[in-house]
Design goal:
Layout: H1 8-35, H2 40-48, H3 67-80, H4 82-101, H5 104-116, E1 121-124, E2 140-144, E3 147-158, E4 165-171, E5 181-187, E6 193-198, E7 209-220, E8 224-225, H6 231-267, E9 269-270, E10 273-274, H7 279-307, H8 313-341, H9 343-346, H10 352-362, H11 369-382
Parallel strand pairs: 1-4
Antiparallel strand pairs: 2-3, 3-7, 4-5, 5-8, 6-7, 9-10
Helix pairs in contact: 1-3, 3-4, 3-6, 3-7, 4-5, 4-6, 6-7, 6-8, 6-10, 7-8, 8-10, 8-11
The structure holds coenzyme a persulfide.
Length: 393
């Protein structure tokens, strides 16, 4: 049997997710992509089998099985359908604010609904004018009579229109920069909140990406996460833990594309033999497999770190490295898969062109890969490795 870092129990859960992915989600993947419709049937499947629970602690209705297994679930689903894998990744992204900064009462009010999948959730940080530079946001939250009044807008929000709960960041002190930002949870039916439009996209077509508008949207003070002014740090701590969800999605796409290209290369013949036996194709396959396995090493190591209770700068760097590498691999490997299939790779009859389109967004959202490089380098610059130079002449 192949070497496996997982325990017996973890392997059983992975097997369940794998079976659901292969038997129930894979046959829907092309349709989801073509129709551009949010796959509520996949949400229902996750609900029925308790898959959302993998992202939550037992006390909140989850399985308490930890981060590594949650990432593996996203990877397995994304191997066959990146839109469906994203549903799990965003349930984590949208709920992390409550998990990290919510009071017991806030957690008890919302987390069980998210753990069962009764409600989907979303994370609203980006704005039309502030993507990478989150602190430049313009949305405001003015305190008034025990409530906050939100005004402004958010863009590129995954799960817009399908989420029941949004984690929203807004300026409680518009002049203060980072310390002027606070975090809130906003229920979808709050008056003054609306989804203004959904964006047509290159890939992950079944997932919604939308623009949120807040017009005198009144949110109770009890919906603020953490203290006033802590919002930026909460946003960053969330991203440290959520970006690997995108890494898992990227790795799933990359491995799915590799698996497909391998099977194709074994059966497609040119010049009297399967193309897998032509050295240039064999070399591509070898590189694709190696890159996926290296990416998996970074991703699983991140999952193990979280499960071991690691926090702070070490986690920030590991998260950024996993996101950067897994998603760059997703793009490279899915592009090579299209190349291996040749003309067939470029047409809709085969899934690799979808995988390539889906891969592209993983290098962009939840912090572009340029931002990940910046985060990694900043952490490196804080580290002291001078002792390594001692005695070097
Ligand atoms: N965890 C905890 N605190 C953090 C942190 C982290 N990962 N990163 C930064 N902070 C803290 C800093 O320590 C600093 O605190 P003090 O003011 O007490 O010193 C504060 O937050 C401001 O940090 P910094 O000056 O580094 O902020 P920058 O504006 O330079 O932003 C980047 C840093 C670029 C890394 C950040 O804006 C970012 O991640 N941008 C991308 C956002 C993104 O991913 N958007 C995609 C949409 S979300 S799906």
């Amino acid at each position: 049997m192949a070497y496996d870092v997982l325990s017996e129990e973890q392997r059983e859960i992975r097997e369940l997710v794998r079976t659901l992915a292969r038997e129930r989600i894979a046959p829907r993947a092309a349709e989801i992509d073509e129709s551009h419709e949010f796959p509520w049937d996949v949400v229902e499947l996750f609900r029925e089998h308790g898959i959302f629970g993998l992202l939550f602690d037992e006390e909140h209705g989850g399985t308490g099985t930890g981060t590594l297994l949650a990432l593996i679930a996203i990877e397995e689903v994304s191997k066959v359908c990146a839109t469906s894998g994203l549903i799990l990744a965003v349930q984590e992204l949208g709920s992390l604010g409550l998990k990290l900064a919510g009071t017991e009462e806030q957690q008890a009010r919302y987390l069980p609904k998210l753990a069962s999948g009764e409600w989907l959730c979303a994370y609203a940080l980006s704005e039309a004018g502030s993507g990478s530079d989150s602190a430049a946001m313009r949305t405001t939250a003015r305190r008034d009579n025990g409530e906050y009044v939100l005004n402004g807008g958010k863009r590129f929000i995954t799960n817009a229109g399908v989420a029941g709960l949004y984690t929203v960041f807004a300026k409680t002190d518009p002049d203060a920069g980072h310390p002027g930002i606070s975090a809130f949870v906003v229920e979808a039916d709050t008056p003054g909140f609306e989804v203004a439009r959904l964006e047509p996209k290159m890939g992950i077509s079944g997932s919604t990406t939308g623009e949120l508008v807040f017009e005198d949207c009144r949110v109770p003070e009890g919906n603020r996460l953490g203290a006033e002014g802590e919002g930026f740090k909460i946003a960053m701590r969330i991203l440290d833990r959520s970006r690997p969800g995108v890494a898992a999605q990227g790795l799933g796409i990359g491995q799915g594309a590799t698996d497909y290209a391998l099977e194709y290369a074994k059966s497609r013949e040119t010049m009297g033999k399967p193309i897998a036996q032509h050295q240039l194709i064999a070399a591509k396959l070898a590189d694709m497999e190696t890159k996926c396995e290296a990416a998996r090493g970074l991703l699983y190591s991140f999952g193990q770190m979280v499960d071991a209770g690691v926090d702070g700068p070490e986690l920030t760097k590991a998260s950024a490295m996993a996101k950067l590498y897994c998603t760059d691999v997703a793009m490279e490997v899915s592009t090579e898969a299209v190349q291996i299939l040749g003309g067939y790779g470029y047409i809709r009859e085969y899934p690799v062109e979808r995988m390539m389109r889906d891969a592209k967004i993983t290098q962009i959202y939840e912090g572009t890969n340029e931002i990940q490089r910046l985060v990694i380098a900043r952490e490196m610059l804080k580290e002291n490795r001078a002792f390594l130079l001692a005695g070097v002449g």
